[in-house]
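Q: My collaborator sent me two sequences in one message, no labels, and asked for predicted structures for both. Can we handle them in order? The first one she listed is below.
A: Yes, handling them in the order given. First sequence, followed by its structure tokens:
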Amino acid sequence: MKSLIILFSFMSWWVSWPEGHPTSDQQKLMIDSVNKIRQKGCYCGKRFMKPVQKIEWNDKLYQSAHVQASEMYQHNFFAHFSKEGLNIGERLEKAGYIWMVAGENLGEGQKSFEEVLNDWLASYSHCTMLMHPKVEEMAVAKVDKYWVQHFGKQMPLKN
């Protein structure tokens, strides 16, 4: 019975996503799911992507992803540019993330992270972003039906 409750609790997280900042457990599950794929390698379309290093959660990436998801929800649009026309790099800089590498995956209508992750893996461009060898950090935000996943590698600090 105990294992059934634990399994149900785990499965209920995949089914529902509370609005707002994901908990540390939710962040860990998302990072672990992505890192499991990155460590094994995978096919993006017909191209095998070699295993790449693990990535970590970054709250500035979450902030920028959440702003984009909120804006898409509030203004009912779906795009890799903000309502003001800002691209991913400009939006990351606005959030205070000084980037060397930046990327974004979007999803619409998926009910769980597992579902949106599977959709991203089925899309060549989204899958290659998940497997990009130069990204070191990520975050995911969901507002209503909109999912935004931001990736990055920060610019090294100057001495």
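Q: And the one she listed second?
A: Here it is, processed independently of the first:
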Amino acid sequence: MLKLCKNWYNILSDEFSKSYFVSLQQKLTNEYNNYTIYPPMDKVFTALNYVKYDDVKVVIVGQDPYHEEGQAMGMSFSVPKTCQIPPSLVNIFKEIKSDLDIDCIQNGDLSRWAKQGVLLLNAVLTVRKGFANSHKGIGWETFTSEIIKKLNDRKDPVIFVLWGNNAKNVMPLITNKWHYILTAAHPSPLSAYNGFFGCKHFSKINDILTKLGKTPIDWH
């Protein structure tokens, strides 16, 4: 069963009766019954369950969950402590070191960021084992776009971090001028040298939070 905290459930409650979400649930039931799907069903909404709507400071938009065993945990770019750190996250840690001159804790569990108000939101929240992007187009994008719209409606500024073209697709949803948008290339080894390295997003985020009178993120 999909587990979503009361805070976000109340905010998104209108979505669950819409035809696209009913169809999505039917597809997910079939997928989980017949294939190995990541993350486990009770971890699909982990990103939302860590950060209440009013507590979101930063949104880092990812594409879809990792598709190999034991990696996906319901938060973009994050893997359990026991997993090898994936290449994109290795590059994220490298940029943090270059930008802030701090050494990240050498495990890929980013719940330490989530607890500080960083919403690690994938555009697609599930994936079939071994098949990247296999759940693209089944309805998740409509749902996660609604999350972005709800955050856009907030009067309290949010910093949206969009790495790569897939993440930049949500930009048209961020219409209120008091929010902040940071864009760069994706941290994947295929594109990190095309503008992710040197983007200095982590210091920029903390500078913005300080300006807003909020506690900066400890990126360790």
